[in-house]
Structures are given as C-alpha cells and as structure tokens.
Amino acid sequence: MKYMTNHIMVLTLLMLFTTYSNSEPANFDGKVEMKGHIYDSACTIDTGSLDQTVSMGNTAIHELLEHGIGPNKSFSIKLIDCDFGKNPNGVKGDLGITFDGPRDGDIFMVSGDASGVGLTISSETQDQIVPGQIDKLMRNEIHVENNFTVLTYHVQLVKLSNSLISGDYYTTLSFKLDYN
Q1: DSSP assignment, residue 127?
Q2: Which pLDDT tens digit goes with each residue over 23-57?
Q3: Cα(107)–Cα(101) distance, rounded to whole angstroms?
Q4: DSSP assigned state of 137
Q5: C-alpha torsion 8→10→15→18, nearest 10
Q6: Overall pTM surpassing 0.85 (yes/no)
Q7: How many whole angstroms separate alpha carbon 169 and alpha carbon 139?
Q8: Where are the beta strands (DSSP E) in 15-80?
Q9: Considering 90, 142, 151, 168, which has the largest number of Cβ atoms within 10 A of its Cβ?
Q10: How high is the pLDDT of residue 101?
Q11: Which residues contact 126 (CB under 8 A, 6 or more apart)?
C-alpha cells in the first residue's frame, strides 16, 4: 500500500510537470513607479561666521557730539557650497539676509551703562540694513570664487540724542539667510 501511494504521488507530480511544461509560458505583467525631487541646495554658513563678536572699541563722547557717529567696523559672513549655477553672474536663485535684534525704527538698540547711542548696519554698497526686514542681495553683489562667497557688512555707533552717558554697551543681533 505504501509502495502504491508513493507511485501515485510520483505519477501525479509527473503529470503536473508535464502539463505545465507543455502549456503556454505564463506571462506576469507588473510595473515599477519611480518618484523623486531635484532641488537646489541652500548655502551653508561657514562655522567661523555663525557666532561673531565685533569689538567697537572706545569712542569719546565729544566725537559722537561733533560727528554724530563713531567708528565704522566691518564683519563678514562666509557662505560655502552655494549652488549658484552657471549664469553669467554665477547666481541662480534669490539670496536675502535679515538682521534682527532690539530695535527702534532703523536703529539697533544697545544695552548697558551707556545711553543715547545705537547701532546701524550697512552693506558693502553702503545701503543701510533695516532691522527685521529682508535685504535682497543684488546678483552683481554676489561673487563666487572657489565655491564660496563672502558678504561684508559695516556696523557703526550712532548718536541718538545729545544726552549721552558714558559706559559699556552691548547688543546681540541675529541674522537669517533666505535662499530661493
């Protein structure tokens, strides 16, 4: 009986194999869908530019009273790995920067013992930066060399009133890049 059962199973498998191999090949249709997104990479701010301290130095009250301004100090923000494409000026997208902090109108305010003064920031082209408002960089202001560009700004102490009090002053400003 066991011998017969084994033969029946072998014959059944043999019939199935013969039927399958003699029939038309099986066709299986399928599809694979691909999706993705290509984007321009934003600029990276060089780590040396993220947190800076600008020493404004010492300014005499009589200088502020006479000229209305103190010394002009420069600082820069280095941008690396920007994808500015192959346009003639090297710029593909729009780039803007916003400086923010304590302010009164167009002036950045300071804290400390000194009073009657504030700070202004201007671009390399001498355009004053308005606190909290985006400053769109003109395409001809951005020059890429060796895959980086440097944005230079000037900060200046300004007299706000004739009632000046001497002492230390300080402020903390932030900046944000907008890249489209």
Answers
A1: P
A2: 566 677 777 777 776 655 667 888 888 899 999 99
A3: 10
A4: P
A5: -170
A6: no
A7: 36
A8: 44-45, 69-80
A9: 151
A10: 95
A11: 154
- What pLDDT, in 10s, does the model give residues 148-166? 788 899 999 999 999 999 9
Can you tell me the distance from the alpha carbon of 4 to that of 159, in angstroms, rounded to the nearest whole number? Answer: 112
Which two structure tokens, joined as six digits, stand for 179?
């890249």
The C-alpha R_g of the chain, in whole angstroms, comes to 35
**Residue found by looking up tokens 């209305």 in the block:** 68
Backbone angles phi, psi at 35, to 5 degrees: -135, 155
d(CA 172, CA 119): 11
Cα separation of 142 and 91, whole Å?
Answer: 7
Give the integer Cα–Cα distance in Å for 77 and 177: 10
Nearest to 179 by CA among 98, 100, 93: 93
Count the helices and strands in the chain (H runs, E runs). 3, 11
Q: Which tokens go with 167? A: 């002492």
Amino acid identity for residue 125 in this structure? T
CA 37 to centroid of chain Cα atoms: 20
Burial string for 65-102 (b: 16+ CB within 10 Å, else e) reads: eeeeebeeeeeebbbeebebeeeeeebeeebebbbebe
**18: amino acid identity, one letter:** T
- Alpha-carbon span 111 to 117, nearest angstrom: 10
H helices of the chain, in order, are 2-22, 47-50, 61-67
What span, in angstroms and rounded, lies between the C-alpha atoms of 71 and 77?
A: 20
